[in-house]
Amino acid sequence: MSTTKKIAGAALAAALGVTTLSACGGGAKDKTAGASESAKPKTVTLVSHDSFNVTEAVLKEFEQESGYTVKVLKSGDAGAALNQEILTKGSPRGDVFFGVDNTLLSRALDNGIFTPYEAKGLAEVKPEYVLDKEHRVTPTDSGDICVNYDKAYFADKKIAPPQTLDDLVKPEYKNLLVTENAATSSPGLGFLLASVGKYGEDGWKDYWTKLKANGVEVVDGWEQAYNERFSGSAGGKKAKGDRPLVVSYASSPPVEVLYGEPQPAEAPTGVATGTCFRQIEFAGLLKGAKNAEGGKALVDFLISKKFQEDMPLQMFVNPVTKNASLPELFTKHGVVVEKPENVAPQTIAKNREQWVSAWTALVVK
């Protein structure tokens, strides 16, 4: 998954490539513990994209209960991080990989980088998120890529904001939308996949032909689209962005509230819920992990109620377990996407490169 999705939540994570999130887990050990206990590896390493983040107190509680110290190895965006694990298959850089999503899942599984493990607490994960029945990966979070709109713009113009993909090609929304390049950006790819899910493999090109004719603007990545070109975000206002529609996330409005100065009573942006593609992220025990037992404990932790309820305000994603509750910021200012578009991971794996190539030729060149 894109690091941009959770860039605000991950801002506290410095530019260090390797971060130890806690010094030592737990207090003094029982001196009567046997040799096998003393030989137990004390560090478990989580390999992730750059946006992994967790509250220090939540992580320390896991470390104290498990006896492990967690080290996080951040490796760029999700695609780059996955590529490194494929290249080091069998001799991984860590014990657990966090952050492969449903757009890349088949690639990870086909390359055999994970060891099957059925996590404790898996029964609490909603069944629709369990895409690998062999349990090589465990669902950790979900999020929706959606068009966001500038509420003030549409109120001033007395135009109803768009709600569906069909709406975006109507004349009243000409020259209003900015999206990210599907070849260079995760939300850009997700928006392309939303069109594939909606219009099918035979219809998405026709849709993009209409969208291009209606003045869609394409930029390289989320940061430029959302914080420079979009008129509804705090960054976009400062940059004098003039596009009131942007491809972002369903969790973006709560972020605008949380980081608003002063904090607004209502989110200044809204979500067109009929434009969304659902991303699901997974974690898995890496094949050849030096600390497999610690890795299993860490995977268990990632679907624990404590971690699942910590995630929304740390990484701006939704929990996948039935027993986790969303924070008030999400329930008050966020939206529930009832029917996001989906494309099977196997279909994405088979067609992703040719879709992106065709999209580039059609929209960018």
Q: Can you put this structure into words, describing what you see?
A:
Strands 1, 2, 3, 4, 5, 6, 7, 8, 9, 10 and 11 form an 11-stranded mixed β-sheet that branches. The longest helix has 20 residues, at 345-364. The relative contact order is 0.19. By secondary structure, this protein is of the alpha/beta class. Strand 2 (43-48), helix 2 (56-66) and strand 3 form a beta-alpha-beta unit. The chain is built from 14 helices and 11 strands. The chain has helices spanning 35-38, 56-66, 78-87, 105-110, 151-157, 186-199, 204-213, 222-229, 234-238, 252-258, 292-302, 305-315, 328-333, 345-364; strands at 18-20, 43-48, 69-74, 96-101, 114-115, 138-150, 177-180, 217-219, 245-249, 269-286, 318-319.
Order of helices and strands: EHEHEHEHEEHEHHEHHEHEHHEHH
Rg over C-alpha atoms, rounded to the nearest angstrom: 21 Å
State the shape: globular
Q: What percentage of amino acids are in beta strands?
A: 15-25%
Number of strands: 11
How far apart the termini lie comes to 26 Å
The mean pLDDT is 89
Structural class: alpha/beta
Considering DSSP H and I runs of 4 or more, what fraction of the residues is helical? 25-40%
- Low-confidence stretches are 1-35
* Biggest pleated-sheet summary: 11 strands, mixed
Q: If helices are DSSP runs of H or I spanning 4 or more residues, what is the number of helices?
A: 14
